[in-house]
Every structure is written in C-alpha cells, then in structure tokens.
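Journal club prep, shared notes

We agreed each person brings one worked example of a sequence with its structure written out as tokens. Mine is Transport permease protein. I'm keeping it raw so we can talk through how to read the token line rather than staring at a rendered picture. Sequence first:
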Amino acid sequence: MKEKLKRLFDYRELLFNLIHKEVKVKYKNSFLGFVWSLITPLMMLVVFYVAFGIIFKLRAMGMQFYAFFLMSGILPWNFMATSLLLSVGSVVNSSDLVKKVYFPREVLPLSHLGSSSFHFILQELMLIVFLLAFRVPLTPWIFMVPVVMLLEVTFIAGLSMFLSALNVFYRDVQHFTEIIIMAWFWMTPVIYPIALIRDNFPAWAQRIYMLNPMAHIILLWQRITYNSPHNGTEAALLSVPGLLGTIALSITLLVLGYVTFTRLEGRFAEFI
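Then the structure, token by token:
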C-alpha cells in the first residue's frame, strides 16, 4: 500500500491537470462561466425557501435567517452529491484512457472530487460574504472550516473510489447511487432543522436517524455558518459520540475505498 501511495504522489501533477481540465471544460464557451457554480445553489435556495420557509412555514419554528440555514446545508450536500455522481462513472467514462495509458486509475474519481471541492470553496466564500453583508455575526466555529472540509473530503474520497471501482464490473452501481442520493437527501437535516426529528420521533428512531454520517457533517457545517447568537444555542445540535463515529467511518471508508480500488484496477481494462 505504501508503494501505491507513493505512485499516486508521483502522479500528483496529472491529478492537478485533470482537476484543472474538469473545471475548465465545465464552463467552456459559457458566458457566465464560474458564476454558474453560484447560480445553481441560489436557485435551489429559492425553491426550498418558498416551499418550506413560506408554504410549510418552517420559519414559524423560531428559525431566524432561514435562507442562511438552507444554504449552510445545501452547499455541503451538493458538494457530496455532485462529487459522488461524477466520480462513480469516472473510470467507465475514461475507457480509452484506461486501456491505452498507464497511470494510477484512482486519479480519475479524485479529479472529480478536486473540481467539486474548488466550486464548493467558492460557494462557501460566497455564503460567508452574504453573512457579513447581512451583519450575521460569526462565531469562533468559523475557524473549523478547514477541519470539517477535510472530514467531508475524506468521507467522499473513500466512497468515490469504492463505488467507481465497483461500477466497472456492475454498471447498476451508478443507477443505484443516483436513487440512493435522492432518498439520502430527505433523510439528512439539510432543509429542515434537526430539532424536527428530536421533537417528533422516539429515542430509538432518533438513534437510527443519527447513524447517517452525512447528518453529522451537515450539522457541523450548520454550526459553522448558521449557529450565530441570533439563532440560539440549539441552532445545530451535535452529538460527540456520533461525531467521533463519523470521523472513524470516514477514515475507514478512505482506507477501504483505496484498497478496493487499487486491488481491482488491474482488471479494469478487461471490463470496459
């Protein structure tokens, strides 16, 4: 495994070039360019704000700045979902490259994660600018951005490599991933506060709900960008055992994903 990690490090320039290519190609011949990475989450914000903030009146639960609450969850969720959906088919979609050129195949899913990370950072910076513009006070939790970013990237990287490797042999994996992500969204406190689960479900159901690692990651992002003094001390509830479990799971997934990918990559050319 040490040799394979060294091999990946030796090909870091290729990884960076692929990330640059993904970012550049996405907005090639586009008039608005990178602005689209900001428009998409803003449109989602408008839709969910109207649906849940006005029609279903989630604002009536005492949530101030509900729009910022939405953004604090939508951005990291989109980061995860986009990265996975692009990564899972990355090896299959690069069949010519895989068959003809030698390089560490793991750079393919990781390049999509890298390009998605670039857009996510832009979006988070935009959110912070909006918070400052609307004079929403930030807390010291803002300095945890790099740590939480690293946690989410670790989680996504492991899952991306694992799923992209399996997708080479079982193409149903990509379709299955799309369906799971749709269901996963509603099982994660992205557009509704975690208090909704706490106040309306029995303890055993809450424990099952909080087995979702993305719930803890989203709650961390909400604590960073939404849990200001204006929103109260319970704007984003956190469970220390659950958080530690998410960290352990993310590291385990990273190792499992990398080991699975590198063990199977020798057979990729046969199946694509």
